[in-house]
Amino acid sequence: MVSTIHKAVIGLWCLANVLESVSNQTYTRSGWTVYSYPHDIASDAVEINIKDTNIDRVDYVEAFPSLRRYSLTNNQVSDFPDLSNVSDTLLRLTISFTRITTLPVSAMAAMPKLELLDVSSNKIAHLPDLTAVFPSLCTLMARSNGLRSMNRSTAFRYFLTGNQLTKLPELDDVADGLTLVVMADNKMTKIPGDALPSAPKFALLDLRRNGITNFPDLRNVTALNYLALSSESDRFRVRTSSDDVAEAVVAQRQQPGRVSQSWQRVRRLDRPGFGNERN
């Protein structure tokens, strides 16, 4: 009996040590009294979060051979940090609520494994071609930047609410995997007929509060099951053979405040850290 209890205690102690080791691989630095970038983070870091500080400069990020997630949020940084030492391992990169105005892709090291990029709430007016530097990108978040234009990426999910965009991203190259585009509160007034590709997984399109006056034929977008268009601000013509889309449009017209269960689900997904799989 004693031996059994002793073994159980040892087992719990070992488990606690393992859990402590795992938790210690996530490093968070925060506080408005922090003015300089910390260089005391252990080399075994898997996740680094630098948030809510007065840091205004990140010269470089040291080599962390196991680093998968890096977040720089709500700081005073105005230049995109040098991430070349961790470019081969990063899966998720969040740089939001800073003063960054550009993504210097020509000077950036390629991040072949990066799946999620969140650059929301900065001051970026243009997104350059991201296909070379982020060839595996699945989810692109660039909300509330004042974006006026953007180039191509490999992303299958776009969260671009609250910008100045007048047209959809280029979607033809990602048609096979495209699943959702969230672009409420932009400056689009029309959607050209060739802007929406025939995408077998394209399930959701949110274009609320854009002032859209014309909408294309949706018969080729057979997978679309939720289309969000605000009837109080968007006046449009819709031609479709898809019952699901037609019902969604009618619901938006008749009940502007109505939110379907599928939309509630996607709203939960529209958050930093969502989406790192490509299927």
From TrEMBL:
Region of interest called Disordered, as start-end residue ranges on this chain: 251-279
InterPro entries: Leu-rich_rpt (IPR001611), LRR_dom_sf (IPR032675), SDS22/Internalin_LRR (IPR050836)
Biased composition (Basic and acidic residues): 267-279
Domain of life: Eukaryota
Keyword Repeat: yes
Signal peptide interval: 1-24
Keywords: Leucine-rich repeat, Repeat, Signal
Sequence ranges of Polar residues compositional bias: 252-264
SUPFAM superfamilies xref list: L domain-like
Repeat as UniProt keyword: yes
PANTHER family: LEUCINE-RICH REPEAT AND IQ DOMAIN-CONTAINING PROTEIN 1-RELATED (PTHR46652), LEUCINE-RICH REPEAT-CONTAINING PROTEIN 9 (PTHR46652:SF3)
Protein name: Uncharacterized protein
Species, as recorded: Paralvinella palmiformis
